[in-house]
Amino acid sequence: MTSTALELAAKRLELVREAVPGVGRIGVLGYPGFAPAARALVAMQEAARMLGVQIQPVEAREGQFDAAFAELSQNRAGALVVLPHGTYFRERKVLADLAGKNRLPTIYEFRPYVDAGGLMSYGADVLDLYRRAARYIDKILKGAKPADLPVEQPTKFELVINLKTATALGLTIPQSLLLRADQVIE
Length: 186
Fold this sequence. Notes:
- By secondary structure, this protein is α/β, with parallel strands linked by helices.
- It has helices spanning about 5-20, 35-50, 65-75, 85-90, 90-100, 110-115, 125-140, 165-170, 175-180, and strands at about 25-30, 55-60, 80, 105-110, 120-125, 155-160, 185.
- The protein has one domain (about 5-125, about 155-185): Rossmann fold, CATH 3.40.50.2300.
- About 50% of the residues lie in helices and about 20% in strands.
- The radius of gyration is 17 Å and the shape is globular.
- It starts with a helix and ends with a strand.
């Protein structure tokens, strides 16, 4: 299995801009030295030009989140895209709380961030990926060589929006975005 995180980074930028009409500067939180985040940032810079917004890259390791959000606030970011990283996933509640405290509408890759209080997520349906991985394991246990199996990309994606968080941020999510959501948490 592979992920389409690089391709979806630009889509997340587009979605958060749609959720926050008129936003001019969008922060992008990435883990220092994490190559996939650097590649996603390049893709997002092109998308930002097409969307007419500026992006503000900020890096943070665990324990540096307060400083990262202070920098985003100081530079007047109106929204935030959190790039995927294991540390960020583990600290998703901390990130969601800081986004709320700083009144910063934020989009993440996976639904558990939204379940932890984040505003929205867009990415591959993780449960579907697990089911598909189980089929691969079954094939391997039945004698298939892993090298002979094709690499697959996700086929199901989900947009999840937390309206409780939107209300707490004083944000009205456009109806057009709500209609496209796979799940709306109320």
